[in-house]
Amino acid sequence: MPAEPQHPQVPESRAGSLTLRAAVIGIFCVLGIAVAGSISAMLRYDLIGTGHLPRCALYPVVLIMGLNYALKRFFRKRGLSTIEMLFIYCTILIMTGIPGQQFAEYMYLGLVGPFYHATPENQYASAEHGFTRYISDWLVPSKDPNHPVIRWMFEGLPPGAGFTDIPWGMWVRPLLVWMPFTIGVFFVTMCITVLLRKQWVERERLFFPLAQVPLEAAKTDSAGGPGPVYKSKLMWIGFAIPAFVFLVNGLHAYFPAVPSFNLYYWPNLFAEKPWYVLNALSTHVYFGMIGIAFLLTAEVSFSFWFFYIFDLVQQMVRISMGAPRPWGFRRDQHIGAFITVAAFFAWVGRRHIRDILRNAFGRGERVDDSDEPVSYRFAFFGAVIGFLLICSWCTIFGISFIFPVVMFGWYFLSLIVITRVIAEAGLFVYWMGCWPGDFALSWAGYDNVSDRNMTMIQFIMFHRSDSAANLMPQSLQALKIATEAKMDKRKVFAMMLAAMVIAIFACHVPSLYMIYKHGSPNLGWLTRMVAAWPGQQIQSGLTSKEQFTGGDVGEMLLGAGFTAFLLLMRRQFLWWPFHPLGYVANTTWMFWRYWFSIFVGWLMKVTVTWLGGVKLYRRVYPFAIGLIVGETVILFSWLLFHFIYPIKGVLIIE
């Protein structure tokens, strides 16, 4: 019989309460990660906190556990408790994407790029056809590309200039103006997770595979030393595999004479139609993803790699039939699948939604929400009012109100579905398949939208275009951990809010300093490109004739119908082997990264359970944890080393 994932229970200890020292350590880590993460992301694109199991959050837990062991062995003293380590983890978890792809990476150069890159040829700033005139002065430090506040960002500080010569004052107004929008989006995101928590964590008992890793890594024994997983030989064998591989690969980066392991292989075996599609069967090895796939039920892990193959077969059939857009169907099926599965979640949780509305409006019998991070009333109206304020902010700066309503409606719906994918399948990163601006503009028709609306939609939504490290999965994982560990969820939530705000403001100075000191052409590859993207997107939008066609709507209905079929079959038949989220998740582009590692983890799981059932699975379980923790420790150690002793380019991104 297949083994079901186990939920580790965190024992209570005498030192198990949330403490001031844990809060201080957590905030210290937040500041350090925000500053160092901004520098690394800007200068070399070393993202120390990307993804939904960020290394910079798990690494301190493992490090503290090592210090606990040393205190116990050599000084006979107790270190931090399990609860304190998990509190620190949750504090860091919520902000890890902010120094990179969730905020800093796109913020600063994205504001000035359209003005610096304006030329007579592209006519960005021409009096008759230019779009820069529609961008409010309040949103940018200057519109003059020759002003030092812009020019020095691309050319670097002049000789002899230093920190105090940077035009800091020019940045105060635009950054303060952007803060209500940025913090508002993050705040609404966190309010939604409060509304989801009870249904997904307590009633449906979702597994949250990524949350199991810190829950295991933070376990201590009765004396305060390392918990059971650290005492397993299989855990250390699993730990050693990625540690050795990436130790060698890191040495190769510094000393090219050292051989390296090729973990990312593209076959490139076919050149003819339609077989060249099979070149996407890349064998990329992610040890952490193999470990996560082993923790999942076989149904989930099987479905996620199977539907990647299914997607490639779709492409081959469409190419063989001469379809005009053999790849374009993915976006449209993505929209239909996401809307259908979101509606299904709402139907399953309808009683919970009723309880939320009763508490919010004070009608009918109220449910007890004292165990929630904040009351349902606060979370509901926080989300609604925050949503309206975000839309109003966009309207103030030139977007007709209907567009932000549609864009952010789709944005938050997509995040809910993405969060469900992370909660059930544990993907490290996941991008939404249809950008919110494209969703709204395609329904309206690009050429039916005014130039002002087009310019400001592209300019503003550029800053919300990357969902790789979004806060919603992080926030709900933290609340799952708080629930399992019996932590005070109100304190955890308050600390996460504080960490989020602190991280945003802590990014400003180091990010801008790196940009001005080195100049955009000398920064990391993504940072160099960011400055050009907003202008290109705006110009493309102004000239595009794109609009959803009857064929696009047909693809949406196909995606919706197939998703509904999978949901119905899974609900009616216990033997049904396909999980609907396997199809829903594969309607985006990024599964070439993970499908093979998920396949390997699934194969390990079914082999182990076939040979020895639940008993053998539980014995091998620490090996999977070791793969995940070992990859985290070695890669983050290299990132720290690279921060102090840099070489050109990215050291190890994965």
Offer a concise description of the structure:
The protein has helices at 20-44, 55-75, 82-93, 104-116, 148-155, 169-203, 209-217, 233-254, 287-295, 298-320, 329-348, 350-361, 376-396, 402-425, 436-444, 451-461, 471-484, 489-518, 525-530, 533-543, 550-572, 580-585, 595-644, and strands spanning 264-265, 283-284. The protein has 654 residues and is mainly α. It has one domain (20-644).
> What is the CA-atom radius of gyration, in angstroms?
25 Å
Poorly predicted residue ranges = 11-16
Which structural class is indicated by helix and strand composition?
mainly alpha
**Range of helix content:** 55-70%
Number of strands: 2
Number of helices: 23
Numbering strands along the chain, what is their spatial order in the largest sheet? 1-2
In N-to-C order, the SSE pattern is HHHHHHHHEEHHHHHHHHHHHHHHH
**Residues in β-strands, percent:** under 5%
How is the biggest beta sheet arranged? 2 strands, antiparallel
**What value does the average pLDDT take?**
91
In total, how many domains does the architecture comprise?
Answer: 1
Q: Which term fits the overall shape?
A: globular
- State the end-to-end distance: 35 Å
Give your account of this protein's structure.
With 654 residues, the chain is mostly helical. It has one domain (20-644). 63% of the residues lie in helices and 1% in strands. The chain has a two-stranded antiparallel ribbon with strand order 1-2. Helix 6 (169-203) runs antiparallel to helix 13 and helix 9 (287-295) crosses helix 23. It is globular and about 75 Å long. It starts with 19 loop residues before the first helix and ends in a 10-residue tail after the last helix. The relative contact order is 0.19.
